[in-house]
Amino acid sequence: MRPYYKPSNYTMKNSVGYLMRVCTNRVLPQMEALFDHEELTFSQWTTLVALHDGRISTAGDLAHTICHDAGSLTRLIDQLVERELVTRTRSETDRRVVTLRLTPRGSALVEVLAPRVMNFWNELLSGFTHVEVDILINLLTRLVIATEDKVRGDKPSRLVISETPISVPILPSPPVSRSKAKKS
């Protein structure tokens, strides 16, 4: 493709980087506010979500995937381990490797809080069609992969983009049959 930007058309209005930054700066405080009265912060919840499907298992891969610096991530993981939401296990074959896993309580917390995040995004995206949301997701995914390719060069990617749902479907309660209702 020939270059999209030229000196004559590069403005804030059409700068992908600027628009992504503004979007992130507007969304992040709203996402953090969703967790104001919960036992987790948004950063802690994001960490649990990244560990949810079990494909990310080391602090290094976690830091890379959620774009968190190693120092603050260590403190965050310490808090999650202390609260019994995450376990840390040192490898028996390579003592340098420490594996992270969600506990059942951590997994349950992700699933319980996921609808709150989904509702937030559904409200924010309510002015878009499903096709437009699919296109937006596809384009952002391609952009993430392109930036990852540029950063890693010939090294294998450590980025994990999960396709595992983070919430269990809420099924309606089965209707009580009249014969069972009369017996009670």
Descriptive notes:
With 184 residues, the chain is mainly alpha-helical. It has a domain at 23-124: Orthogonal Bundle (Arc Repressor Mutant, subunit A), CATH 1.10.10. Helices cover 54% and strands 5% of the residues. The chain contains seven helices and two strands, in the order H-H-H-H-E-E-H-H-H. The protein has helices at residues 16-34, 42-51, 59-66, 70-82, 104-124, 130-152, 178-183, and strands spanning 86-90, 98-102. Strands 1-2 form a two-stranded antiparallel sheet. A hairpin with a 7-residue loop joins strand 1 (86-90) and strand 2.
Strand arrangement in the largest pleated sheet: 1-2
SSE topology string: HHHHEEHHH
Strand share of the residues? 5-15%
Classify the fold: give the CATH topology of the domain at 23-124.
Arc Repressor Mutant, subunit A
Give the CATH H-level superfamily of the domain at 23-124: Winged helix-like DNA-binding domain superfamily/Winged helix DNA-binding domain
Radius of gyration: 21 Å
From the helix content, strand content and strand pairing, which structural class follows? mainly alpha
CATH architecture of the domain at 23-124: Orthogonal Bundle
Instruction: Tell me the number of helical segments per DSSP (H or I, 4 or more residues long).
Output: 7
Mean pLDDT: 87
Tell how many strands the DSSP assignment holds.
2
The biggest beta sheet is recorded as: 2 strands, antiparallel
Share of residues in helices: 40-55%
CATH class of the domain at 23-124: Mainly Alpha
Judging from the principal axes of the Cα atoms, what is the shape?
globular
Model regions low in confidence, pLDDT < 50 over at least 5 residues? none
Determine the N-to-C terminus distance: 71 Å
